[in-house]
C-alpha cells in the first residue's frame, strides 16, 4: 500500500504552496503550520514532508523553529528539506525534530559533502531530492536547470547507499493536472529496489490510486489537499 506524505511548505513561518516553484505564486493556506500538522495527525496521517522555502531561497536553514514546534507537539515522522547547505544545517534540522532530511541542490553542487552526510548520519536518515525538468536535474529552488540526466543521477547515489529518493517533476508541481506516473515507472524499472517518493501534480485520490497501481511506494501531495480536491476521509483506504 502506498505511503501517504502530505507536504507543508513554509515561508515566513506560514503554510504556503507555490506553482512550479515560482515564489511569486505563493498562496497562504494557514498562518500556523502546527495547526495543519495536528489536523493531519488527527486524521490518521503518520508522515510529513516539511520544506523550508525561505531556506531554499537563502541557502541556509531558516524555519527550524517551526519544524521544532511541529515535531515537539505531534508524533508525526518528519522529513525536512530546504536550505541545507552545511553539516551544521543538517544537525539543526535533526535537533529540531526531523527524523530525515532531504538534500537536493547540495547533492549536485557538492557531491562529496552530500556523500559525507550519508556516511555520517546513515542512508535511512538522508533522502535524495531529485527535482527534474524535462528529465534534467533542477537546483536552487528550481531556478536553475542543469545538464545532469535524472535517472543516471539517481543511480549514482543509489550506488553510494541512498535508498529513498523524493522525485518531483517540476512541470507538474502545483498544476493539479496529475503526476508523472510514466516517469516514476521508468525510474522503478531502472532501479527496482529504490524507494521512490513521487511528488508533484497530484490532483485527486484517483491520482494516488494510479501511483499505487504502478507500484510506487510513496507519494507527497499538498495543494490538492489544501484546495479541497482531496478529503482526508477519502484516504482512509490507504491507511
TrEMBL record:
It comes from Candidatus Parabacteroides intestinigallinarum. One of its GO terms (biological process) is L-tryptophan biosynthetic process. Gene3D superfamilies: Aldolase class I. Pathway: Amino-acid biosynthesis; L-histidine biosynthesis; L-histidine from 5-phospho-alpha-D-ribose 1-diphosphate: step 4/9. This is 1-(5-phosphoribosyl)-5-[(5-phosphoribosylamino)methylideneamino] imidazole-4-carboxamide isomerase. Keywords: Amino-acid biosynthesis, Cytoplasm, Histidine biosynthesis, Isomerase. InterPro entries: Aldolase_TIM, His_biosynth, HisA/PriA, HisA_bact_arch, Isoase_HisA-like, RibuloseP-bd_barrel. Its EC number is 5.3.1.16. Coiled coil: none annotated. Belongs to the HisA/HisF family. GO terms for cellular component: cytoplasm. Its main location: cytoplasm. It is found in: Cytoplasm. The active site is at residues 9, 131. It catalyses: 1-(5-phospho-beta-D-ribosyl)-5-[(5-phospho-beta-D-ribosylamino)methylideneamino]imidazole-4-carboxamide = 5-[(5-phospho-1-deoxy-D-ribulos-1-ylimino)methylamino]-1-(5-phospho-beta-D-ribosyl)imidazole-4-carboxamide. It comes from the Bacteria. GO terms for molecular function: 1-(5-phosphoribosyl)-5-[(5-phosphoribosylamino)methylideneamino]imidazole-4-carboxamide isomerase activity. Pfam families: His_biosynth. CDD domains: HisA.
Amino acid at each position: 500500500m502506498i505511503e501517504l506524505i502530505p507536504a507543508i511548505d513554509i515561508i515566513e513561518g506560514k503554510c504556503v504552496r507555490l506553482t512550479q516553484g515560482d515564489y511569486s505564486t505563493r498562496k497562504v493556506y494557514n498562518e500556523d503550520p502546527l495547526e495543519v500538522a495536528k489536523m493531519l495527525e488527527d486524521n490518521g496521517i503518520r508522515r510529513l514532508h516539511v520544506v523550508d522555502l525561505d531556506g531554499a531561497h537563502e541557502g541556509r536553514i531558516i524555519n527550524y523553529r517551526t519544524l521544532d514546534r511541529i515535531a515537539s507537539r505531534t508524533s508525526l515522522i518528519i522529513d525536512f528539506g530546504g536550505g541545507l547547505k552545511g553539516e551544521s544545517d543538517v544537525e539543526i534540522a535533526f535537533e529540531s525534530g526531523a527524523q530525515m532530511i532531504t538534500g537536493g541542490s547540495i547533492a549536485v553542487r557538492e557531491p562529496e559533502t552530500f556523500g559525507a552526510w550519508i556516511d555520517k548520519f546513515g542512508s535511512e536518515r538522508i533522502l535524495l531530492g531529485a527535482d527534474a525538468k524535462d528529465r534534467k536535474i533542477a537546483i536552487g529552488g528550481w531556478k536553475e536547470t542543469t545538464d545532469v540526466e535524472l535517472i543516471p543521477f539517481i543511480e549514482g547515489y543509489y550506488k553510494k547507499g541512498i535508498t529513498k529518493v523524493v522525485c518531483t517533476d517540476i512541470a507538474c508541481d502545483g498544476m493539479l493536472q496529475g503526476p508523472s506516473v510514466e516517469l516514476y515507472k521508468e525510474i522503478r524499472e531502472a532501479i527496482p529496489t529504490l524507494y521512490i517518493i513521487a511528488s508533484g501534480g497530484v490532483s485527486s485520490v484517483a491520482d494516488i490510486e494510479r501511483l499505487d497501481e504502478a507500484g510506487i511506494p510513496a507519494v507527497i501531495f499538498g495543494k490538492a489537499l489544501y484546495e479541497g480536491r482531496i478529503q482526508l476521509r477519502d484516504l482512509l483506504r490507504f491507511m
